[in-house]
Amino acid sequence: MSSRTPRIAEPRPTRRSLLRRRASAAALAAGAVAGLVVTAPGATASASAPSAARGFSASPVAAPDISVANVKAHLGELQSIASANGGNRAHGRPGYKASVDYVKAKLDAAGFTTTVQQFTSSGSTGYNLIADWPGGDPDQVLFAGAHLDSVSSGPGINDNGSGSAAVLETALTVARENLKPAKHLRFGWWGAEELGLVGSRYYVNNLPSPDRSKISGYLNFDMIGSPNPGYFVYDDDPQIESVFKDFFASKGIPTEIETEGDGRSDHASFKNAGIPVGGLFTGASRAKSSAQAQKWGGTAGQAFDRCYHSSCDTTSNINDTALDRNSDAIAHAIWTLSAGQTDPDPGTVFENTTDVAIPDNGSAVSSTVAVTGRTGNAPATLKVGVDIKHTWRGDLVVDLLAPDGTAYRMKNSSGFDSADNVIATYTVNASSEVANGTWKLRVQDVAAQDTGYIDSWKLTF
User: Fold this and answer.
1) Buried b (16+ CB within 10 A) or exposed e, 421-446
2) Which residue intervals of 148-193 are DSSP H helices?
3) Could you tell me if 46 and 118 are in contact, meaning their C-beta atoms sit under 8 angstroms apart?
4) Residue 104, phi-psi category: left (phi > 0), alpha (psi -120 to 50), beta (remainder)
5) Using 50, 70 and 90 to split pLDDT, how confident is the model at 265?
6) Cβ(227)–Cβ(317) below 8 Å
């Protein structure tokens, strides 16, 4: 790590010398900053949220109900496979290959194009199964997947026959409904997840970079039928997250953010490659709290899945209600996120164009914007457009103040940021704030010798 030299150790150039020294640099900086999208604490930047650019949109057609009886029938087949092959479906064991063959046969018969990808792990051959549904924009791929392997100590019916079977039945429902999505649909069943996400990581690492960039989102489903279930949603991509949360909210089912298995399932392989991810989970070895039992039912103080990674993870280890609800949620997400892109709502803009002088090395100043006519809270992706004219932008600290006074830091000062002006769009997660009210842009110059003013700023809801 490099050490940072204190600013006072180097004499500050005068404005006259800066004009000479930065004549070419300022032009370059202005062009770069003009298109800047910056992440603030408690915020997500558009540059790091590919789903926004890749066009997720609302589905014009509601997803059909997924038959939980059909999902359970697949689980019965996986149980039979395990029972006939030493009691498990683990990587490198015959039960895993038989599981791949079962799922592949169902998909082939339904009209999918299937591919079996081989890899090697722990001295054994592993298999990923990929299924593509014909049609849809090949440059916009919506991907759903689940790991198909179990641990060696049991048949793995909840972990992760549940996710595998639900994804399979959703894919078969796509075929029965002859869905014609705008985006291309792809489904995956991963091998050797239990050994450290080996199969999914192999798939992503061997996917050419142009093909990675075509994946608009990856949805992961690992353990969605736990016998003492919770309803957990991944909080990775905000738009995918909201699709799942909205579904459960429409059913009157409260959700929580998934933390127990965060990064421990196959979505991590995709997330690490910069692909937007999301998914569902009903809990593993962690105990359900009293508060969770009160809102979800079940038994407080008991693990969400007492048979996690054990021989008792059989078809008797499934909560049918949780399996049913999560299977329907998968279909809802597939139908919603694969729909055609609609013209995005440009939003309502609230703007202040009155100049406000920023005193040199002085107190903070603010400019206000009154937001009216909105309902509920501000969005999680509130756009804050800032145009500040200043002769040394590194002097400036910039905050957004919500109507209740909560401050969201958008820019810190930096002694080495010598470009002119702050012309940027910040994306702030203001979802905990009431939308209507007086919002403020607060700016402070924390060093001497350079001056400027707030030219204009705006909020886009």
Assistant:
1) bbbbbbbbbbbebebbeebbbbbbbe
2) 163-176
3) no
4) alpha
5) very high
6) yes
Single out the residue in 312, 337, 362 at which a domain terminates: 337
Between the CA of residue 346 and those of 41, 45, 116, 289, what are the distances in Å?
24, 18, 43, 43
Nearest to 46 by CA among 337, 384, 279: 384
CB 219 within 8 A of CB 285: no
The domain total for the chain is: 2
Q: What pLDDT score does 22 carry?
A: 36
Residue 24 vs residue 457, higher pLDDT? 457
CB 433 within 8 A of CB 328: no
Domain co-membership, 34 together with 153: no
For the question of residue 193 being annotated catalytic, the response is yes
Is residue 313 left, alpha or beta, with left meaning phi > 0 and alpha meaning psi from -120 to 50?
A: beta
My answer on whether 20 and 81 are in the same domain is no
At position 187, the amino acid (one-letter code) is: F
| Contact residues for 88 (Cβ-Cβ < 8 A; gap 6+) | 82, 95, 150, 151, 152, 153, 154, 155, 156
The domain that holds 307 is classified in CATH as 3.40.630.10
Q: Are residues 213 and 93 in the same domain?
A: yes
Which residue out of 193, 241, 258, 433 is catalytically annotated? 193
pLDDT, average across residues 40-51: 36
Distance CA 449, CA 416 (A): 14
Q: Does the residue 1 lie in any domain?
A: no
pLDDT digits (tens, 9 = 90+) for 300-334: 999 999 999 999 999 999 999 999 999 999 999 99
Q: Which tens digit of pLDDT belongs to each residue from 162-189?
A: 999 999 999 999 999 999 999 999 999 9
Query: Which runs of E-coded beta strand occur in 301-364?
Result: 349-352, 356-358
CATH number, domain containing residue 437: 2.60.120.260
Query: What proportion of the chain, given as a percentage, has pLDDT over 90?
Result: 76
